Amino acid sequence: MSAPAQIDPAQLSGLELLKFAMTLKDRPPFIGDLLGMEAETLEHGKVVFSLLTRQEFANPLGSTHGGICATLLDSVMGCAVHTTLEAGVGYSTLELKVNYIRAVPTDGRKLTATGTTIHVGRTTATAEGRVVDDQGRLVAHATTTCVIFR
């Protein structure tokens, strides 16, 4: 009986790499672990992550800090771009523009962020994102520009 084949992450497309990384038991930590993000959808050009708000996310006024939504949005939009890239190609956020629509309590509300690509070119990509609360109300929306490292 032969040993299972080893997977070389450098040979995986962006989508394959994300799917593979989410299944690893001993994967390296990432910002999503700190915030409790859960990957709900990983498709070509589309990513959905969610999290539950908590007291530690509070701003000085007692509602969820805007940085939580900004991090969710940066994550889903960047990962949406990543899903479109071929093996060995990287990216980084160049610009992030967030619009906040409503405050969110820190009482365990589920926030769901969806990121979708708008354009993926040779050196740059753009994407958009939306965060909704557990009642489907828009909380924040954003756009991003990413640089692609080929």
From TrEMBL:
Residues 62-140 form the Thioesterase domain. InterPro entries: HotDog_dom_sf (IPR029069), PAAI_dom (IPR003736), Thioestr_dom (IPR006683). Its EC number is 3.1.2.-. It is an enzyme of class 3 (hydrolase). SUPFAM superfamilies: Thioesterase/thiol ester dehydrase-isomerase (SSF54637). GO terms for molecular function: hydrolase activity. It comes from the Bacteria. Keywords: Hydrolase. This is PaaI family thioesterase. It comes from Nocardia xishanensis. Pfam families: 4HBT. Gene3D superfamilies: Hotdog Thioesterase.
